[in-house]
From TrEMBL:
Protein family: Belongs to the bacterial solute-binding protein 2 family.
SUPFAM superfamilies: Periplasmic binding protein-like I
Pfam families: Peripla_BP_4 (PF13407)
Domain Periplasmic binding protein as annotated: residue spans: 49-304
Compartment list: Cell envelope
Protein name as catalogued: Periplasmic binding protein domain-containing protein
Gene Ontology cellular-component terms listed: cell envelope
An example Gene Ontology molecular-function term: carbohydrate binding
Taxonomic superkingdom: Bacteria
Keywords assigned by UniProt, alphabetized: Signal
Amino acid sequence: MSTFRRSTTRRILIAIPALALLGGLAGCSTDGATTSPGSSGDSGKSLTIAFIPGCTCDPYYSAETAGFEAAAKAAGVTPIVQGAADFQASTQIPVLQAIVQKKPDAIVIDPTDATALAAPIEAAIAAGIPVMTTGNNVNSTKIFTAIAASSIEGGKAGAKVIMDANPDGGEVLFVHIKPGISSLDDREKGFRDAMSANPKFTILDTVYAGQDSATQAAGLVSPVISSHPKLVGIFASNVITAGGVANAISSAQLQGKITTIGYDAGPQEVTDLKSGALSALISQNPAMIGTLAVQNTVKYLDGDTSIPKDQPLEPFVITKDNLDSADAQSALYK
């Protein structure tokens, strides 16, 4: 099984990151994404690769950065990591432009907006710097690859947890940030596609917590809980909205009575899972994504033309039942 293709089982994929992060960074192959220890590729040239996360404000990006830096060290690559303090295209674009001036050999970026980042990314490529994306997509065909956990599959997985826990059906809610964030848009699509196929469920209007604030998300979700007694499930689309949903559930003392899905697997989400404020987490395994980003970039710079344009990974569902398993532990954002 290739980690660059959607896996047939979640267990198999998540076991690979555990091995890669514990031992593979010393020079082992990760299903085709191979780098040699202490070298920067077949050319022998010392490489510099820049990583621009969506922001420095989220446990997801902290975990992805850790994976990127560990893989860079193992490959003998000089890493540059620079991100904006908030998740906004207006603050990420100047960071990208500043990185371009440093002239790294390649750039890895998690775009904050699929449209707004397209032209700045293409400008970097036009300047002779190859670019790949992780996490969120960008509206450009000029990147050399994109690696991300499939958000559509993650949306479907969350819907399945809700449907399995509520066989009699009911109302469900999706909590978004704002349209245009490709990964969140895809999560909603996967969620809606799965839920709409089951006539027992009614999908309420999406709630948008545009400030990307847990406090705002809680304030928006609480009235929905109060006014919809048939509400059986809530899907929080990222770590921030998951915190807001957990707070709203705890305030209403409804732990375990409404099935709540928190996307990502940050430390606070794990705490909320243990308390029952969240029913399940959906991990993207960002540390592994950061690792694969370095490995694929080194291969590309060495002239490898076999790298797929799109490399979707399978998200992993974490519940109280499997939280202590090795697979789940390797998927947490630490």
